[in-house]
Amino acid sequence: MIAENIEIAEMICNIMGVKNQIEFVQDRLGHDFRYQIDSDYIRMTQGWKPEYNFFHIGDFRKALR
Q1: b/e map of 46-60 (b: 16 or more CB within 10 Å)?
Q2: Rounded Cα gap, residues 50 and 35, in angstroms
Q3: Is residue 28 situated within a structural domain?
Q4: Degrees to nearest 5, angle at CA 34 with 58 and 14
């Protein structure tokens, strides 16, 4: 399960112990609907692999802490 941006922001606020002050604003023109990182290069050149599966919400929560 992938969390929505608002859920991620709320998790970060909770971990940091700050009051959730998330404010919704009007979307900007040219807004990017998706961001994606390609880790193939660092995997191939450095042998890196992720410690957590970020597509699993439990692992994502663990990684934030």
Answers
A1: eeeeeeeeeeeeeeb
A2: 18
A3: no
A4: 40
CB 31 within 8 A of CB 25: no
Q: How far apart are CA 57 and CA 15, in angstroms?
A: 15
- Domain span holding position 40: 5-22+33-64
Chain-centroid distance, C-alpha 44: 23
Which letter does DSSP use for residue 34 in this model?
-
Is residue 27 in a domain? no
pLDDT in tens, 16-60: 889 888 888 888 787 777 777 888 999 999 999 888 776 766 777
Helix (H, G, I), strand (E, B) or coil at 43: helix
Q: What is the tally of structural domains in the chain?
A: 1
